[in-house]
Amino acid sequence: METLAPLWQSHERAFGKNLYVYPVLSRRAGGISVGINLNPDKGCNFDCVYCQVDRTPSGMDGIDPVHRAVDIRRLTEELLALQESVHRDDLFRNPPFDKVPSGLRRMADIAFSGDGEPTAVPEFSNVLKAVADLRNTTTGLSHVPIRIITNGTGLFKSRIRNFLRETLFLDRPLPADVKPASEGMSDEIWFKIDAADPGSFSRIDRSALSFDRYRMSVSEALRELPVTLQTMVLDIRDLDNSFRPEGAWAKAMRDWVTTLLREGANIRQWHLYTVARKPPSSEIVAVSEERLERLSRFFSETVSCPIAVFP
Ligand code: SF4
Predict the structure, then answer these.
(1) Which of 56, 117, 191 is the best mutation target for the ligand 1 pocket, counting ligand atoms within 8 Å of the beta carbon and taking the most?
(2) What ranges do the domains of the chain cover?
(3) How many CA atoms lie within 13 A of 97 on its CB side?
């Protein structure tokens, strides 16, 4: 699997002439994750210290920073074309996907991810409805789960939470006529929580939201929606103010997730991952597998949901 490292690490969002749809090889999804990027303008309401999206002046070269309404027809055409390309094996004839082993040459998910926060885009609901309808009715797509990869902020609105429950198969498996790839498979929300105390929240996520407001809204959202939690674990090697997850950060995370579960949050699994691709600054450093495992054991002392680590 070592030769696959460059592919695991590459989350290149440019694919041919596509504007919205791109393939990546995903470790966590276990195959080709078909990304949907609703933010070609790179817009996000967080400014995470580890974010791979280059928003520096040179990184914005050629990028229109103004949000343009998503062209849903174009997006669904790009999605169908990529599905065909995976199905016919065309995707795997040329670099870099020619290195993908046969067991991973499958569409593992359709992931709303990309260069910004998908749920913050005004057309999010309309796009999701169009993609879910297409998935449910198209042979070759109907077995593919939809994953919303989000910082959670769009889910603070009850209107969006209701819409997600109505549109996706979240706490129920994909029905037989949608032909799930494996029994019990369902759509998922991958909800990121990187910090459970105000200092770490402003240091890691660098959001303009007040932490108290954020914490209250997360609790409300997780009582209503089943999610997989996603937590970035990293070191910040700043000579004047370094950060390590062990200690106060870990204790606050453990206590908060424990409380969320006790209060009725439907957290299916908690993913701990670290920096896998080139970080935006040399101060941002991945933690070792051993440290991730140790943190996982520490969290497991009081957290009742399964925890998985992705070094
Ligand atoms: S929420 Fe995602 S896209 Fe936005 S800044 Fe953080 S890592 Fe980047």
Answers:
(1) 117
(2) 1-190, 193-311
(3) 25
